[in-house]
Amino acid sequence: IPVDPFDLVIFGGTGDLARRKILPALFRRFCAGQMSPDTQIIAAARSALDTATYRGFVTEALNEFVPNRACEEGTLAGFLAIIDYVAIDATGKDGWETLVERIQGNRVRAFYFSVGPSLFAPLAERINSYGLSTQTSRIVVEKPFGHDLTSARALNAILADNFDESQIYRIDHYLGKETVQNLMAIRFGNMLFEPLWNSQYVDHIQITVAESVGVGGRGGYYDRAGAMRDMMQNHLMQLLCLIAMEPPAKFDPDAVRDEKLKVIRALDPVQPHHIVRGQYNAAPGDEDAHPSYREAVEDPRSTTESYIALKAHISNWRWANTPFYLRTGKRLVARSSVINVMFKDAPHAIFGQEAGRHANVLSIRLQPNEGITLKVTIKEPGPGGMRLLDVPLDMSFAEALGAEGEDPPDAYERLIVDVIRGNQTLFMRGDEVEAAWGWTDPIIAGWQARGDVPKPYDSGSTGPGDAELLMKRDGRKWQGIN
Ligand code: BG6
């Protein structure tokens, strides 16, 4: 469904995020016929470029990040025609009058802050003082949304001084992923699961977001963040919320976000012995291609974690005594994001203990090979008596939808369209972000107070051995990463 023509200003238009994500996402939506040729995209950045040069930058970005284009070459020309560039000084006066001239009318106007948080305040203030903020204006803010609770509060306060909460779109790109949205469809669109979705039937839940990449060229940022701030506080927390929340009365922004917030507020503080931090070593025998974390961040003494596993408890009626085990890390054996809902054993073994103990597992694969698998128990075939066997009921979304070989749409495509449509459901509310930091801060403070040093693990492994122990102590086991 096409969206009405709009104006989108991308501050940080020459940056990495614009190149890799925002421009490719806009182009794909343009190819899909969702954006009208009357739309206007204005990139704003410090460099003194003219529009023709910037369009060259866009073409290069698209060649690199949208190489196999389903749409015709003429579409690229059409897309470039709606792109403009304004050189702007985010902290001064230059360029602002030009920007004002370029944006007129009452249509939807989105300002994308694809810049460091230090520029949020000057940008927000200028958008207001130059009269650019209207009823139809909204701003889009990228992560990291602060470094801790104090800084997140300060950012929220700056934004609140200039915009209404209904105009602020805080991005967590995991929420834009097709399969993450599917979590809600699976839970609330099926009668089958929801009655079992509680501590009475679920033994525990595992959430794994494993990455095979290392920190790459982002060492400067990452070494100050670590896996806790970079992934756990936002992406894994959002997955936890969607898995654990109560059914919202309807699928509207505040109903969903209220329920997510309740989950975060019900989280217990995490015990220090329920956390494992890790840091990757070089890949054995392949040190040049895959150096250690410390080499990658150029700090031989860094104690930042590139891996974290922890056991969380949600103290509420539904989840009392059902642990949630969360883990994420870089340079692991595979890229794999999976949620495993581990059901309890049947209450009584009617086939006798020798038939084996079996429990159902619902695996929701978020990426790659998106799909769901339900492990069910059947009789082992053959005349050997009543022995039991686990088999997967397996569903791949691509196969089921006849879309094999096609990548699911990128999260940014969905999220940008939602901004234009004014739908905040898949964006984080200010109080949600603060509550997430409120849970994370004491954990990080504890490490700092104790001088905690992460456990080393080999690149290409499943993470530090202590993470296995975290489970083993509870008589449980991680499902494999693959
Ligand atoms: C980003 C993190 O938010 O998410 C990165 O800053 C991480 O460190 C990335 O690699 C993972 O996203 P995806 O979409 O590749 O799973």
From TrEMBL:
<feature type="binding site">
    <location>
        <position position="46"/>
    </location>
    <ligand>
        <name>NADP(+)</name>
    </ligand>
</feature>
<keyword id="KW-0521">NADP</keyword>
<dbReference type="InterPro" id="IPR019796">
    <property type="entry name" value="G6P_DH_AS"/>
</dbReference>
<dbReference type="InterPro" id="IPR022675">
    <property type="entry name" value="G6P_DH_C"/>
</dbReference>
<comment type="function">
    <text>Catalyzes the oxidation of glucose 6-phosphate to 6-phosphogluconolactone.</text>
</comment>
<dbReference type="InterPro" id="IPR022674">
    <property type="entry name" value="G6P_DH_NAD-bd"/>
</dbReference>
<feature type="active site" description="Proton acceptor">
    <location>
        <position position="235"/>
    </location>
</feature>
<feature type="domain" description="Glucose-6-phosphate dehydrogenase NAD-binding">
    <location>
        <begin position="9"/>
        <end position="182"/>
    </location>
</feature>
<feature type="binding site">
    <location>
        <begin position="12"/>
        <end position="19"/>
    </location>
    <ligand>
        <name>NADP(+)</name>
    </ligand>
</feature>
<comment type="pathway">
    <text>Carbohydrate degradation; pentose phosphate pathway; D-ribulose 5-phosphate from D-glucose 6-phosphate (oxidative stage): step 1/3.</text>
</comment>
<keyword id="KW-0119">Carbohydrate metabolism</keyword>
<feature type="region of interest" description="Disordered">
    <location>
        <begin position="450"/>
        <end position="482"/>
    </location>
</feature>
<feature type="binding site">
    <location>
        <position position="177"/>
    </location>
    <ligand>
        <name>substrate</name>
    </ligand>
</feature>
<protein>
    <recommendedName>
        <fullName>Glucose-6-phosphate 1-dehydrogenase</fullName>
        <ecNumber>1.1.1.49</ecNumber>
    </recommendedName>
</protein>
<feature type="domain" description="Glucose-6-phosphate dehydrogenase C-terminal">
    <location>
        <begin position="184"/>
        <end position="479"/>
    </location>
</feature>
<feature type="binding site">
    <location>
        <position position="143"/>
    </location>
    <ligand>
        <name>NADP(+)</name>
    </ligand>
</feature>
<feature type="binding site">
    <location>
        <position position="330"/>
    </location>
    <ligand>
        <name>substrate</name>
    </ligand>
</feature>
<comment type="similarity">
    <text>Belongs to the glucose-6-phosphate dehydrogenase family.</text>
</comment>
<keyword id="KW-0313">Glucose metabolism</keyword>
<dbReference type="Pfam" id="PF02781">
    <property type="entry name" value="G6PD_C"/>
</dbReference>
<keyword id="KW-0560">Oxidoreductase</keyword>
<dbReference type="Pfam" id="PF00479">
    <property type="entry name" value="G6PD_N"/>
</dbReference>
<feature type="binding site">
    <location>
        <position position="230"/>
    </location>
    <ligand>
        <name>substrate</name>
    </ligand>
</feature>
<dbReference type="InterPro" id="IPR036291">
    <property type="entry name" value="NAD(P)-bd_dom_sf"/>
</dbReference>
<feature type="binding site">
    <location>
        <position position="211"/>
    </location>
    <ligand>
        <name>substrate</name>
    </ligand>
</feature>
<feature type="binding site">
    <location>
        <position position="173"/>
    </location>
    <ligand>
        <name>substrate</name>
    </ligand>
</feature>
<dbReference type="InterPro" id="IPR001282">
    <property type="entry name" value="G6P_DH"/>
</dbReference>
